[in-house]
Amino acid sequence: MTRATREAIAQLSERFGDKLSTVASVRRHHASGVTSHMTIAPDAVLFAASTQDVVDAVTICHHYRCPVVPFGTGTSTEGQISAEQGGLTIDLSGMDRILRVSPSDLDCTVEAGVTRKALNAALRDTGLFFPIDPGADASIGGMASTRASGTNAVRYGTMREFVTSLRVVLADGQLIDTGTRARKSSAGYDLTRLFVGAEGTLGVVTEVTLRLAPIPERIGAAVCTFPTVEAAVSAVVTAIQSAIPLARAELLDALQVEACNHYSKLDLAVQPTLFLEFHGTHQAVDEQVSLMSAITAEFGGSAFRWATAPEDRTKLWQARHDVWWAALALRPGSQGIPTDVCVPISELPGVIAQTRQDVVELNLIAPLCGHVGDGNFHLCVLVDPEDEGEKRRIAELNARMIARAHAVGGTCTGEHGIGTGKMDYLVAERGAGMMTLAALKRALDPRNVMNPGKILRVDDYQPYA
Amino acid sequence: MTRATREAIAQLSERFGDKLSTVASVRRHHASGVTSHMTIAPDAVLFAASTQDVVDAVTICHHYRCPVVPFGTGTSTEGQISAEQGGLTIDLSGMDRILRVSPSDLDCTVEAGVTRKALNAALRDTGLFFPIDPGADASIGGMASTRASGTNAVRYGTMREFVTSLRVVLADGQLIDTGTRARKSSAGYDLTRLFVGAEGTLGVVTEVTLRLAPIPERIGAAVCTFPTVEAAVSAVVTAIQSAIPLARAELLDALQVEACNHYSKLDLAVQPTLFLEFHGTHQAVDEQVSLMSAITAEFGGSAFRWATAPEDRTKLWQARHDVWWAALALRPGSQGIPTDVCVPISELPGVIAQTRQDVVELNLIAPLCGHVGDGNFHLCVLVDPEDEGEKRRIAELNARMIARAHAVGGTCTGEHGIGTGKMDYLVAERGAGMMTLAALKRALDPRNVMNPGKILRVDDYQPYA
């Protein structure tokens, strides 16, 4: 611990008393989570109860140049919660109040620690829901900070589209609102979109104003199997090109289906499979289904197997959300390393085919799932933590996938973010734009106290002159 | 002209020859347009033919600290094209090539000077269209720079949602791409959204990658009249809350309808009127119309009068696009001053009612039209250019509208931008956030050469420390 950090913690302790913890297990817990990256524990953890707590803590940390790491639920996958330079982790999970719901405006304001499931539970009687669904029950603040998306993004969009304003504590402790409640605005630089996806490196999000969507009159969920992964992907790409407003179009390869059958007690045919969902009026859903089944049949898809009862639908999507745990159970004792490229949809069948060849060639176990309507897919690559050779082969696989994504105009991460894990890939993706990213970081956080060592190494770049 | 600007122009002249003009009429033309604000002509105009031209010009201007003002079609309304500190205007209208259309990915890349009508003409055989429609045939680069939207935004979104990447010449002449062609990405700060809406103050946009939408199988356009403006607005708000995917929902008050009848040779009933459009399959449009007509009837709306033939539809929307000219024709010799607030939709009926009272009280002529599904509406306030008292009353009207919008969580501009005209209102809207805006401006344009004197007065703010 640096002397400055020690002084900061002393002052934080005086201000916050029991809300501040330096207990080793608490510190360690806040550097853990689903990430497979090496993480470093912070020197102290603050359990913040209000925006004012965050303002006070950040002001103290700024004064002493003590690093600040925001923490929601620990479900980020690229090392975003690691305290790379020690310092203070601010745990926002206690800031879990829903501050306002306006059914007539289809929007709400929540504290950053509210989770998406808690929000949807609270919305139950309003006829509205919050559609962004990354699988994990992440916090809304964390989802904003990683620009999360997930299964519904093909129809509804991502956090980029759903956040209308953020309350943010800046690096020096100043508090700003990034936008208004208007559905659109041309009033100056888009600060909301700048902080969405900034992974806590520009400030700490404490409140989020979100758009909401009306719960559709009817939801139809179905499973459809295909002879090949490529056929399943091509069916979805064709549907998108035909303007069928799919609400969800999730691909699982045969290995992932097998894993889900075991883990989630399903009895699906062990073949490449799409989990589909249709939202709309009764009539609109009927029409979407009829158009979609014509397309899937064209690509050799099976008849739709319907999950009609709400409990069957819940079971199906719970299984989809549990793909990660199902995959890990394929090889007990293994860890999982997720990949996350996103490419123009016409490139998706080719990119997936080449990736599957790589998996075979590199002798890896890597079930595949994907938000194929967005051009985004994941492998859950299983790794024996003791096997350095396997780790190297996995790194090679990831590097090939990302290089291939970049070659066809895609991105190294569709929804997981950069964290510590993808900083070099970001450099490859952004090129000369890295200097712009560094200029923004330096302008808003000149002391480099906000989640330092994530997204970019700011000292590698000169300011513009 | 400053000495530095004179030196810059000498060097630009050497580099560009005939592409550079210092002719008074050319300079004056590039500070004109539809804006009613006082504007200042640049010292020279460059007709850029390529991104390289822009790189070279900006590099020279940066060296000499000569201001640079980007120019598309001159249709911005808040003085964005005024050369406040003289310098060089870069006219991008010659950069009008469509570089790539990928029907299978529903996207394209165009040079900044391509206009939206030219783009849609070029897309005609692809089954796709570019739905953002601000009325004027603006350039795509200009639309990106003002975060434009318009009649289709209620269904399709704004430039914020449709731009996936920009090629931008930064203040020092460096060239960057702000994103990739992926439909979503979590790879670092969202530079695309930072430059969308920056009004040329952070760099010059030279190429734009855009999403496109499939042309719907059926388009239904109808007109519906109401007893009051408030009834018409409430019908649209109810439709939005009921998740009816209206493609367009444009309100005209009785005075505006009268103006359009004269100007566009229509024979509409002189009453508050909605121009509605429905997009979808045949079946989906039928269902939307049936749901919507039940709602409009509830609010006293008339039977729908259909514009079935494509030429009738074109005539209807041409009339909508000509509301500005129609309004001006109400009082020959007058100029028009557009207002542009946007509020949460539940607040819209109240805000419009109070605004209409203000118009009466202040003794002004101000037909109203609005993208009411977004909470966005405009007055076209007619002004006698010689009448200083009227000008003061119009300023008072605008100030009241914006204060009212701010009081209910809205914004001072839904789609026109800040330019020179709304800088003080932006300060009122952003509060402490202005310092963040200034920090971004200073970081990316430390010499303040990019469209200086627009959006914000950067010298009013200290950098973060």
From TrEMBL, chains A, B:
Entry keyword set: FAD, Flavoprotein, Oxidoreductase, Transit peptide
UniProt EC number: 1.1.2.4
Cofactor dependency: FAD
Enzyme superclass (EC): oxidoreductase
Keyword Flavoprotein included in the entry's annotation: yes
Keyword Flavoprotein: yes
Domain of life of the native organism: Bacteria
Pfam family, one: FAD_binding_4
Cross-referenced InterPro entries: FAD-bd_oxidored_4_C, FAD-bd_PCMH, FAD-bd_PCMH-like_sf, FAD-bd_PCMH_sub2, FAD-linked_Oxase-like_C, Oxid_FAD_bind_N, Vanillyl_alc_oxidase_C-sub2
Start and end residues of each FAD-binding PCMH-type domain: 38-215
Family designation: Belongs to the FAD-binding oxidoreductase/transferase type 4 family.
Protein name (database record): D-lactate dehydrogenase (cytochrome)
Organism: Bradyrhizobium brasilense
